[in-house]
């Protein structure tokens, strides 16, 4: 990446903390746990609302809960899972987020920080990165390849050639929007208050697929960035979100588009990192290129519909197939789900 000397936070090699963070919650899950989609499938028939009534999920079992009648900014009520597969309900407003501001103070995206200590603390890293005056990430990325066998906990890395034009470069004449969240095969990491406003109980949860889409679609920082640049392409700084086997970016983006937000969304198939050079004022993105593939295959794009979205509730089905009412008490999670094979 021209003129970009990477800081130790997440762009440099090995940047172990950032890479390990991708599946931090996954490693805490009990051995033999199946991936989250399968757990939801098995669990979909047993979700009960506060009145004890069974709510049904769709046939894929991927989405359990959605829009509940309400007023103002409240809702929808969503479900997130902790590392032991206990579920907690929350609203998007209960999720911790910080705006990404450029060097002029203009909002260009949102970060959902879940790592709060050490040299790689999310708030400091992404705030510093976004404020660099020369965002090379708007037009290029550095491809990187893993050395050694897949799944190795502390792999070695090497650059695969110099920086090259990013797949989104042609669409980013006026810049990009960015969304940051740590992610892995089980979903996006978020910090949510599952207590009350007066007695908060913050927990790191996994929000897969459409759940994260609803978090994003209702987030005030993202809506401010989207409103200021309604047609800018969006890059998910979320590892593995573009992996077609997981479908996280695809289904989250479907929610954004159903809400009338018209951004083309780009997401990496594997891992990604940020880097910056304070001396040169540059900021960039590094993208893992999976073994056996080319850099052009390391990023997927979900295009926005050309037509304008109809008003919500007119000629549309509910975004998700099942609903749950706001629980009487949000603090308690259910018992951990029974372990299943992977």
Automatic annotation (TrEMBL):
Residue numbers spanned by region Disordered: 312-342
Taxonomic superkingdom: Bacteria
Name of the protein in its database record: Uncharacterized protein
Origin species: Nocardia fusca
Lineage of producing organism: Bacteria, Bacillati, Actinomycetota, Actinomycetes, Mycobacteriales
